[in-house]
Amino acid sequence: MKLWDKGFNVNKAIEAFTIGNDNVLDLELAPFDVLGTMAHVTMLCEVGLLEKKELPKLKKELKKIYQSAVAGKFVIEPGVEDVHSQVEMLLTEALGDIGKKVHSARSRNDQVLVDLKLYGRAKTIEIAVLTQKLFDVFIQQSETHKKVLLPGYTHLQVAMPSSFGLWFGAYAEALSDDMEMLATAYKMTNQNPLGSAAGYGSSFPIDREMTTELLGFEDLHYNVVYAQMTRGKTEKTVAAAMASLAGTLGRFAADCCLYMSQNFSFITLPKEFTTGSSIMPHKKNPDVFELLRGKCNALQAVQFELTTMTANLTSGYFRDMQLLKEKYIYLFKEMKACLEMALLMVPNIGVKKDILQDEKYVYLFSVEEVNRRTLKGTPFRDAYKEVGMEIEKGKFNPERTVNHTHEGSIGNLCNKDIQRKMKKARSKINSAAVEIAIEKLLKA
Question: Is the residue at 81 inside a domain?
């Protein structure tokens, strides 16, 4: 079945090439397609394009289809082109001519648009929830190990004292900025394109504000041409937010790979969290962190793939946009998997104490010594030269103490302030309003 069927058969090779794997990918969109249709038919009834007695029948069948989709039992039958065709076919089989009315005042173009908006919004909420959980774990680790010192590096050379409190806390604050990016992506997904039809509106007297409210969208994409132009733009905006988050996770994973090596030996993992070698019996490899690093690198590339796919498109709809769907669904699935794995790994990281007692870290305290002498009255540049000469002559013997008190330093992590930043960013993703709207739509 094809919604655009005109009584002739399309060449099989053409059909296979143009449909691609949409019948598989669309299973991810099925619950959202049904929600969009429920809102649409409710509006059609309100403006007189459906009879009052027809709406309850349609909603009853749509709820059955929705429950099937949520339970993972929804299928797109052989010969059916996509999720939109399958839903309309099921309604028509169950209700006859009533089912044939649901496509009034819309196109597959804005069906796909609204499906992807609803899908992206729901999945962005899921990612935000997992990001918040990981943030909380980083804060907990930061507080637990805030007094344990760690070498700090620049250019991978020993630089200045750091701490595990600083290290874990740095990634917590990074996630607060990533949450801001997610909030921007959420705002982009939380606007209603439904009613733009093929990109030029409809001569039917539809009520787009009504479907906006029914689906819990924050606002409309008002201009119908622009509503179609958001296909690709929305995905790229979301992908940019995911790239920011993946960048944070990937960098942390790279740190862990380095810090677990015997040359550094700063952190440990339970042996059951590592893998071995086929010929080296001593190996306990941090494969999870290596794969996290690689997967996060791949995730950061998605925004550029999406950009390239849409870079030379003019306004209006093009079939090129179909190719975005697979990357978009992959983006959320892979990001979720990476966050879930990080949530398993981070709480189980053990830290080693007394690292800085090793003589190779003595130069970590050179800046501390310069500052100590400066506080006693020696001009900074003179103190710098004195300490430099002592290092060159092999006579440097500093006090191995650290006294940092300013905001965000070893002695003043400002984790409460970082939590405040995260709370503010997280509050911009108002999932409660969405949940209320969808629950109301399903109960009506």
Answer: yes
Position 141, amino acid: Q
Give the mean model confidence (pLDDT) for residues 142-147: 97
Distances (CA, A) of 6 to 3, 95, 101: 9, 22, 18
Which residue range is the domain that position 382 belongs to?
A: 358-411
Give the three-state DSSP class for 207.
Answer: coil
Task: Write out the E strands in 188-276.
Answer: 191-192, 219-220, 267-268
pTM metric for this prediction: 0.93
| Closest C-alpha to 434, from 40, 184, 118 | 118
CATH code of residue 288: 1.20.200.10
Helix axes 287-310, 224-260, angle to 10 degrees: 160
Q: Which amino acid is at 145?
A: H
Burial (0-12, 13-18, 19+ Cβ within 10 Å), 315: exposed
The pLDDT of 246-258, averaged and rounded, is 97
**Average of per-residue pLDDT across 231-244:** 97
> Which tokens is 163 given?
């701490």
Distance CA 249, CA 227 (A): 33
Strands 350-351 and 149-154, sheet pairing: unpaired
